[in-house]
Amino acid sequence: MFSASQDGSLCVFSLADRDPKKKIADLPQLHTSTEYLTPKMELDELLGQIVNLTTAIKQENTNAQYLADTLKAKHDRKITELNNTKKEKESNAKL
Predict the structure, then answer these.
(1) Which residues contact 35 (CB under 8 A, 6 or more apart)?
(2) pLDDT in tens, 36-75
(3) 43: helix, strand or coil
(4) CA separation (Å) from 33 to 2, 11, 36, 53?
(5) Quick check: helix, strand or coil at residue 19?
(6) Residue 51: CA atoms inside 13 Å, Cβ hemisphere, count?
(7) Contact 15/27 with Cβ under 8 angstroms?
(8) Is the pTM for the entire model greater than 0.85?
(9) Which residues of 15-46 are buried (b: 16+ CB within 10 A; e: fewer)?
(10) Which secondary structure element, helix H or strand E, spans residue 50, and what is its range?
(11) How many structural domains does the chain have?
(12) What are phi and psi of 13, to 5 degrees?
């Protein structure tokens, strides 16, 4: 039997059937695996790194969005200026 808790621990229990009447061959055979324990301090450190990296990713996305918005606004102003210049030249050419 396997049991896990919120603190990250996993326990493996071996249950034995003491009823000799059952045939062992009819029961499914489970292969046990190696036990891996992660100390709570190490788990807390890893969770802290996950939080820090998630925050850094959000900040980088915000910075990239700000830069993209700034460049778009700059390009929009330049397009407006060029259109205004073109209209002025067309108006002067008609006179």
Answers:
(1) 10, 12
(2) 777 888 889 999 999 999 999 999 999 999 999 999 999 9
(3) helix
(4) 11, 12, 9, 32
(5) coil
(6) 6
(7) no
(8) no
(9) eeeeeeeeeeeeeeeeeeeeeeeeeeeeeeee
(10) helix 40-94
(11) 1
(12) -115, 140
- What are phi and psi for residue 15, nearest 5 degrees? -105, 135
Tokens, residue 83: 């259109």
Q: What range defines the domain where residue 19 resides?
A: 2-94
CA distance 85 to 28: 84
Structure tokens at 57: 């990713």
**φ/ψ (deg, to 5) at 11:** -115, 140
The strand ranges marked E within the chain are 2-4, 10-12
